[in-house]
Amino acid sequence: MNLQHLFKSILVVILAICLWIGFPAGVQAGETVLNVYFFHSETCPHCIRQRPLMESIDRYNNDIDVHFIEVNQDPKTWQKFRERYHINSGAVPRTFIGDKSFIGYSEGDGSLEYNSAYSGYIGYRNQIIQAIADAVGHEVSLQKAIEQPKFQFPWWVLGLPILYLLSFLPLKPWLKTASAKRYWFGGFAAMCIVSLFLIVHLTPDVAIETFARGLPFPLFVSTIALADGFNPCAFTVLIILLSLLTHTKSRRDMALVGGTFIITSAVMYFLFIMVMIGLGSVLLEQYGKLFILILGSGIAIAGIVNIKDYFWFKQGISLSLSESQQRKISQKAGQIVRSLRESTTSRMRFLTALGGTILLAIFVNIIELGCTAILPAIYMTALVNYCATNSGGVSMQCYSVWTALYAVIYVIPLLLILSNFIYSFESSRLTETQGRRLKLAGGLFMLFFGLVMIFRPGLLIVG
Hints:
Keywords: Membrane, Transmembrane, Transmembrane helix
Strand content: 5-15%
InterPro entries: Glutaredoxin (IPR002109), Thioredoxin-like_sf (IPR036249)
Shape: globular
Pfam families: Glutaredoxin
Number of strands: 6
Strand order of the largest sheet: 2-1-3-4-6-5
Largest sheet: 6 strands, mixed
Structural class: alpha/beta
Radius of gyration: 31 Å
Order of helices and strands: HEHEHEEEEHHHHHHHHHHHHHHHH
Helix content: 55-70%
Protein name: Glutaredoxin domain-containing protein
Number of domains: 3
Distance between the termini: 80 Å
Number of helices: 19
């Protein structure tokens, strides 16, 4: 064998080794790798459920390369794909396979359905797998499903408030004063909230998401709005106004002025929440997890402040109307009452009184935003997710309809107070004990949802 022939043989061997190294096992020369793009978010429960499927496809198919792109960490790539495929909605998960894109994820099987609102096919599991198989030209290999252990409800957590209740008997000799009883009752309420959160925390994500998805959205909105309506700030102002109106000795005047105040409050609250939604929807889409974390932390802190007011009323930081604010409101309410007394001889005086009532309601709703901004933030987070899922992204009609319902339900407690005053026609005021209880109830409600937003945001994706 001459030297030239030996050199050619060595070169052929080197090329063969290079080709063997260059192509992974299972991928033959001439074959191309299929690129699949999976856009997801860490705060999206559908994304979390779809991710194991995409990881299995990527791992067990050497000619399929799945690119995992978190939309909040790489917004530029996400925006490029949306522009390329003319997609207006920022909803995820979004899976791109060749010339097809799939929106959402469902573990159940379904037919190939195109959703024009989302500019993509519905993300049924079988359709995603089939689209990848068609694009790559063979069946998709998947990891065998691992049987998950059955969920056992943590019944022992319910024993915590029961044990606390039993502590009343040995502690009874020390619970004779009103202050001591208040501390014990506050501890019991806190134990109930802690137990509820422990149940949520110990329950698997799948069970939490299934429960949340099964909860009707109207029920969620009604619950949040009604809880928001039991607001010490709003109660205090309305009771001050109605108590002064009893001196007019006219149920008609009380109904007109009180009704005007409540309707104006509902309109102001509607506008306030709509502005909050407009800002919040942008922040949720751009910053997602960080925004929910910050919002949840703020709500939890506000809840702790309200719980503090139950034990140390208006001491230190408080989300209540200050004494100076209450004096200003009383002065404005007094002017309205004086105008009504003089309205018997002047129609203009009566119109002035109604105009003053509208201005008072606007003034009150502006200064009490610190009392009312917390629960609407919880509602806003759930509403943005709901409208994105059911209305093809940003939908002012979806926002407006649900927020109008929220505002109507919010003023129901105020309407009940007005009805009681008209019926009894007696001057009254919100006692400190009543204020403390409202603060405790509202604070525990805020603390629970704040912790949910921090640790279990999927629970807010209802309907």
